[in-house]
Amino acid sequence: MLLYIDPGTGSMLFTILMAVIGAGFYAVGNLVMKLQFIISGGQEKMNVNKIPFVIFSDSKRYWNTFESICDEFEKIGQPLTYMTASEDDPALQKKYQYVECEFIGEGNRAFAKLNLLNAGVLLSTTPGLDVYQWKRSKNVDWYVHIPHAPSDITLYRMFGLDYYDAVLTSGRFQIDQIRQLEKVRNIKAKELLVAGLPYLDGMKKRLNNSEVKKKEERTVLLAPSWGESAILSRYGGKIIEGLLKSGYHIIIRPHPQSFTSERDMIETLMKQYPDSEQMEWNQDNDNFDALSRSDILISDFSGVIFDYAFISDKPVIYADTSFDDAPYDSCWLEEETWTFRVLPKIGRKLNENDIQHIKQVIDDCIADQGYAKARRIAKEEAWQNEGKGAEHIVKYMIETHHKIEDHTRGQK
Amino acid sequence: MPVFSFLYSIIISPLELLFEQIYMVAVRVIKDPGLTIIALSLAMNFLVLPLYQRADAMQEEERRTEEKMRPWIDHIKKTFKGNERWMIMQTYYRQNDYHPMDALKGAVPLLLEIPFFIAAYHFLSNLSMLKGVSFGPIRDLGAPDAMLVVAGTTINVLPLLMTGINLVAGAIYTKGLSLKSKIQLYGMACIFLVFLYDSPSGLVFYWTCNNIFSLVKNIFYKLKNPRKKLGIISCLCGLVVLAVGIIYPRANPKHEFFIICMGLLLQIPALLYKYQKGTTSSEPDKDGATSRESDFIFFGGVVFLTILTGLLIPSGVIQSSPAEFINIKHFQNPVGYIIHSMEIAIGTFIVWGGIFYSLATRTGRKVIALIVWIASLAAVMNYMFFGRNLGTILNTLQFELYPHHEILEVVINLLAIIVLAIAGMFIYKKKKNLARGALIISTLALCVMGFVNIHDINEKVAELRIQSENARKETVSIPLSKKGKNVIVMMLDRAIAQQVPYIMNEKPELKEIFSGFTYYPNTISYGGHTNVGAPVLFGGYDYTPVKMNERDQESLESKHNEALKVMPVLFSQNGFQVGVCDTPYAGYSVYPDLSIYNDHPEINTYIAEYDGKFNEWDSYELTERIYKRNFFCYSIFKIAPLILQESIYNNGRYNMAKDKLEIDMSGQVMDGNSKASGIKSIFMNSYSVLQNLPVITDVRNDNSNTFFMMANNTTHESMLLKEPEYEPALTIDNTEYDASHTECFTINGRTMHMDKDYQVTHYHVNMAAFIQVGRWLEYLKNEGVYENTKIIIVSDHGFELGQFDDFHMLEDTDAMRFNSLLMVKDFGDGKFETSEEFMTIGDVPALSTKDVIENPVNPFTNSDLSNMEAKKGKQMILETDWRTDVNNGNRFGGGVWYSIHDNIFDKNNWKREGENP
User: Complex ipTM, two decimals?
Assistant: First the structure.
C-alpha cells in the first residue's frame, strides 16, 4: 500500500501548461504591441516635446559667440532655445520673437537639467561633455561644439571634445588636430566642419562700425593673463616703469581673475602707479574699447593676442610664458601647438632684458612688415569664413536636424 | 549562517558532487583508490583546462591592457587632482574599454582555485574509502604519509614533494613575469604546504597530481605551437586506446563502448586544432546582437535546467506522497529538500555553467549556448518520454525493482537525441526567436508546475502535522483480557500466501508456534492494491469493487472509511473494548487519518509504524543529508540519456561516497541475491512494530472483551535480511546459507523460484513477519491469553512475483497478485492446518465475528455479515490505479476486471473480463 511513489509524471500537465502559457504569451505579445502603439504615440509626444535647437552657454562671456547665432535664428524665423548658466547673461535682456532665452541655474543645477534634456541639436562652447558633470542626455540627438578662440582646439582640458558628435571649427588645422586625437585615442570619429568664428565676426563688424576716437599718440595696451607666471606677477612695476619711460600712452587691463586671485598684488600696483594723463587702468567689462584704442598689445594671454592680431591687424608683443600642456589634449599630440608655432611669427617675444628699452622694441614691432604678413597668413588659417560664421553654423544645425528627422522617419 | 550555507551550496556543493561522481565512476572501473586519485586529478584538470586557459589569457590580457595604459594613467595621476582626476581617469578607462573591476580579471585563476580546493579538500579529507588503503610507498591514503623518521621526528614527505613540484611549475610559469606574480605564486605554494602538511596523504597526493599536471602544462606552453603538439599526442593516444579496444575487446559491452568513446574523444583536440587553424583570425567583432542572442539562449537554458532539476522533478516526487518524506518524529517539511536541490541546481547550471560560459571565447560561448539549448531539449524529452517504466520508487529514491533499460529503448533514445540535436541546431541557427520563446514558456510552465507541487505538498504536510499530533498523543497498546474474548485482525500488506508452506518448510518450528492456525492458500483478494483490497477485507462483501462502484453517488473515500469502521463499530456496539492501529488509507491518506473514528470516541486509535516510533535505526540527520544530495542526483538521472542512467543511478546509491553509514541509511543496495549493504528505513519503521508487539501488548487480568484491528507494512517493504535469523543488518552475506538451503524451495516437486532479487527479498520480509509475529504468539501463549484470543492474519493483496510455474493463470498478469494470505486461529489451540476451502478476504468480518457476535450486521448497510452467498460463483477482481489521490472519484476508474470462482489453482476458473471504464 505504502511506498508507491509515482515520480511526478505530469507530462500532460506540462504540455497543457506550455499551451496555456504559449497562448498567454501570444496575448501578452499582443498587449505589448498595443502598448508599443500607445507608447509610440508617447514617442510622438516625446518628439513633439523635443526642442529642435538648443544653445547652452555656461557663461555670459560667450554671448559674444552666441549673439550672432541667435540673431541668425531670429532672422530665418526658426525657433531656438538659449539656455544659460549665467543669471545676468545679456541674452536674457534681448527681445526675440523666435529665440527663447532661459536661465537654467548655475553649475550642477544647469547640468542636472541638461543631462535630462530632450532636444534635437545642441550647440555649446563648453568642453568636457560626458567627462565632467555635464553628461550626454539620451534624448539629445546631436551635440555640436564651437570653439571660442581662433587657436588650437587641443587646448581644452583632457578629453574636452571627445564626446561631441560634431565640432564646427574656425580653421582647417583644428580639424586635423581633432582627427589626430581621435586616432591616438581610438574613438569614434566626429563630424567636423570649418564654419567660422562668430565672435570674431562680431568684433570685426563692431570695429568697422565704431567711431572710437583714437588718441594721436601711440597707445600701448598691456593686457596680461593672471597667475604666477603672468606678466604682472613676474615683472610687476618694472614693466610699467619701462612703459612709462617710453612716453607712449598706456592702458593696463588686468585679467578680471586678478582682482580675485591676486588682489593684493594688483592693488599695490594700482596704488603705486595711479591713473594719470599717460596711464590708465582699464576695468571695462568689454575689452573692445581698449583694443581699438591701442596700437600694440603686450600680453601673455594667447586668446587676446590672436583676437587683437586678427581683428585690429596690429602687432603684438607676447611674454615668454612657460606653458605646461600636461592637463590639455595637446599633450597627446607630438606636433607642436599651432599657437606656439605661430606666435613667434606674428609678434615679438618679450624678454626681461627688453623691458629696459621697451620703446625700441615697440617701435620695431610696429614697423616690421614681416609680422604683418605673418598675421594675415595666420588669420587665413585660423579664421575662415570670415563674417559668415553664424550663418554657416545655423545652416549646419538646421541641415543636421533635417537629416536626423529623416533618419528617424526612415527607421519607422 | 544561512547565507554562508547558501553560498556553500551553490559554489562548493556542485563541485563536490562532481568530484564524487568522477571518483565513484572511476573507482568502479579502476578498482584501485590510489590510481583513482590520479584519474580524478586528470579528469578534473582536463575539465577545467579550458577554464584556466581562458583565465590565464584574461590575466595576460589584463596585464597587457594595464601595461598599455600605464603611461597615461601615471600622467593623469600626476597632472590632475581630486574629483577631476577621478573623472578624467574614468574617461580614460572608458576610452580603453577598461573597467576598474577588470583588475580582478588578473585574480580570476587564483579565485577559481579556491572553490576547487575547498571541494577537493572537503571530499578527499573525509573520504572513508581511502582509510587504511595503501598506495605505493604511501601506507595509508587516509592519514598523513609520515614516510621519513629523522631523529624521532616523523616527516611527511609527500607535502614537501608537492611543494617542490609546485615551485618548479611556478618558476616555469612566471618566467619573464613581474616580481609580483612570482611572489604571488611562491606564496601560494607555501600556503598549500602549511595547509596540507598534516592532511591525509590521499588529499596531498591528489594535489601533487594537480601540480604535476600544471608543471607539464606549463612546460607544454613554453613549447612552440603547443596546440599542434597536444593535438598530435592526444590523437596518437586515442589511436592506441582504439587499437587496444578493438584488438582486445572487453567482455562488458559498456566498457567496450566506453573505451571506443574515449579513443574517439581523444581525437577532438587534433580536429579542433585543424578546424581552428582554418578559421583563425576569422573572428571579427561581429554585431553584438548575435552574442546577445546566445547569451539569452544560454541563460534561458541554464535557468530552465535549474528549474527542471532543482524544482520540478524533486517536487514531483515528493508531491506524489509527501508523507513518505516526512520523519514524523522530527516533522521536517520536505519542501526543504526541494530548496536544497534548487540550490545545487543553481550552483551547477547557473553559477558554474555561467562561469564556464563567461570565460569562454565568443565562439566558445556560441557552442556552449548551443549545447545548453540541446541539453534542455533532450532533458525534457528524456524526462517526459523515456525511462518511464522503471516501476515504483521508494522514499529512498530507489526503485523497488532495479531498473533496466531494454537495449532497444536505449538505442531509440540515442537516435531520438540525435534527431533532437539536429532539429535543435536548426532552430538555434535559423529560429533563435523560437528557441527563446520556447525556453521562456517552458521555464514558466515548469515554475508553475513546481509551485503547484509545493503548494500541494504544503497542504498535505499541514494535514499530516495535525494528524500526527493527534495520533502521537497516545502510545499504541493492544489490550488483551485473560478472561474475556479477544479478537485480533492483523493485515500484513502484500503478504504472499503461496510462500507460507516454504517458510514453514525452512523453519518448521513456526508450525508449532502458529499452532491452531488454519492456513487458507485458496484465498483471493478483490484487487491488486490496498485501495481495492482493504475495504472488502475490513468491511466484507458490501465493499467489493463491484459493490463500491455500484454506490456511485458516494465518494470512494467515504465508502473506504465506512469499511474501515465496520468491524470496530460493530464490536464496540457489542461491548468490546476496541482499538485500531495504522488502518490503511484512512481518510484516503497515506499517513492514516484516524479522525475518521472521531464519531466513535470509544474506539482507541493509534499510529505506530508511520511514526517510526519503534525504529531504533532511524537516523534523521543522515536521511536529511541524503535527501539534500540525492534529489538533485535523481533529477539528473531522470533527464540523462538512458545509456547513462544506470551509471548515475548506481544501484540507487547515486555515486555517493560518504561515510559507510550514510550509504547504509540511504536504503539497501544489493549485490546479487545473497549480498547487500544498507537498511531501508521505511522497512525498519514497520518491522520494529512487529518486533515490539509483545511490548505494546497489555495483558489484563479481567473479563472484558477486546477487539484490535491493525495493519503493517513489513511484508510490503521488500528487503534482503540476514539469514538464518531473517533480521536486518548493515551488511549481509547470505551466500553460504543460501547455497546450503536451496532444497527448502521445493516441496513435493513444486518449486518456488528464488532467482530474481524481488522474489528473494519478498520471501525474506514475509519470513521476518512470520518470525516476529511468531514471537508475539509465543508471548501470548506464555501470558495465557492465546486460547481466548481469535487471530486473523490476512493480506489485502499479493504481488506478481512469478514464483510458481503452475500459477500462470492469466495472460497479462500473475495471479499471485490476487492471492491473499489468510491465516485464522479461532479460540482455543490446536495444530497448524491447511484448508483448501475457497476463501476471500471479504470473509474476514464474518470470521472475526463468528461465535462472538450473534447475527453480525454491518452497522452501515445492515447486511448480514455472516451471509456467505456473495462468494458463490464468479468473483470480480479489479486491477486498477492504486493512488488514492488520483483514483478518488465515486467509482474506481480504469484498469482491468478479472473473474475467478471456487478454486484459484484451476486455470479454467480464471478469466480476463475486460477493461474497467
Answer: 0.85
